[in-house]
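[User] Once you have settled down, look closely at the record that follows, and write a paragraph about the fold.
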Amino acid sequence: MRLLMPLVGLLMLVVAAAIVFVFKIVWDEHVFQQRLVSIEVTAPEGWEIVPYLTAHGETIVQEPLAAPDAPATTTQRLLRGFETLNGDPTKGAVWSAVNGDEIVVLQMAFGPHRPVRNSIFDQMTRASAGESKPNLDVDIAMIRGIALIAKPMLSEVPGQSGPVPVKYRHYVMRLGDEEIDEVVDITLLSNSSDAAVAALLMHVDLGRANGLLPTPDPKFSDSSGIVTPNQQPLAAVPPAPSIAYIAAGMIADGVDLGDPWMEALARIKSAEITNWDGLIALYPDQIAQVPMPLFELLDDGSQENKARYFAARLRNSDRVWNDHEHYILGKIVNPDSTQADFSDYLTGNPDVADDVMALVLQLPAEGVATSTRIVPTTGLQGTNAILQSGQCRVENGVRSCTAGGN
């Protein structure tokens, strides 16, 4: 009997150890299931889900991860956030979706509860905060009832007067309401298309992520899919670099456009000027002096913009114009002029060069009713041939023509 006592004690220790071991496994699994790293992320067709690597983020933003004491630009804060979460699964999770050269990095992290503070001190602080920055965020789609927001393609840089344009895309989503309880913040960085980002999110178990919140987001709907504004499809190709990004590259390359056009280029870089109309609004009397590289940068393919620009260049050139041509070129430069404005003037069949008439055809045909008849004309009457050799619409005596019969 005495010999059995040590064996019984040893057996009890083994059983106790087994119980503790099993309990630890169960507990560890429970803890794991409460963390965002347990969320299932599957790959859309043609893509592969892989562990996040520093090189993935660097490839997207096209710059290396800087040292911790380097300036905290928007870009560097994003890269550092990925590194932090990737190294500590208790704080969140990071995945990479890869398809050739296209990469989407997906980050999920719990965000704190921030209740609204309405004390007198808080109200005074908000009142004295000054004018807030304009919100440039864009809701591009609803994913299972939650807004997918595209952030502006800009990176704030400490010490600089304005943000720096970037080429990558930055998106955010949020499950929950921080004023009510804890939230799940979703951040995506991509060099791919909007459609690819939305497709990846449809392969994330957002329902489980929402269920991990103390107060799940009531807007979340697992039965809904991707809903876009006006049901327009999302872009299926990576976006082209913004004109601000191209302008920044031109400045970095040392291009010299002279005065005041280097100032204008800086304004394009800072997104103060975003199109041709914005440039002309700031430099209304200098359209003829706009350098060709600046016009090409802002050219959106509009025939109207080309017509007004080249009319100004022609009018200001050394070429000799008669009174009719000089008048027409000056009127084309006017941003409010249309084809209809020339109708009465051209009925007299004035002596006008073909290249000047071609510019008239590129103006909008405002003033012409939509219910019109097509009048094909093939006769050649003086130098007014271009206006009469295409297809022309005539309504109430107003003629508007399109080149090439279109």
Notes: The longest helix spans residues 4-33.
